[in-house]
Amino acid sequence: MKNKGTRGKLGALQQTESSRSNSVRERERSQAQKATAEAAFYALQQLTDRELYAKQKEVAGLVVLGQAQGVYICTLLDALGGNYNALRDYLMINGGMWRGGSWAAT
Known about the structure:
By secondary structure, this protein is mainly alpha-helical. The protein has one domain. About 85% of the residues lie in helices and about 5% in strands. It has helices at about 1-80, 85-95, and strands at about 100, 100-105. The chain has a two-stranded antiparallel sheet with strand order 1-2. Strand 1 (about 100) and strand 2 form a beta hairpin. The protein starts with a helix and ends with a strand.
């Protein structure tokens, strides 16, 4: 009878150790999945940050270009004595809308 009781205790101990081992493996698997998800999130965040930075630089460049064009137009208008029609004609000719004695189709 002692032998049967010892086997029962041994079986219970093995089952407990197996459960602990499974629990540890499951915890490690969960931690690995969490680390993988965090790495993917970080990579995506870095990508979106780079894209945002590029767009901000593009917008800043467009703002500077718009300001420069405004200064250009004001300078031309001043040079033409405030004559808007002359400015318009100059810009149309300079923009290629006047070709060989006739207006080009737009």
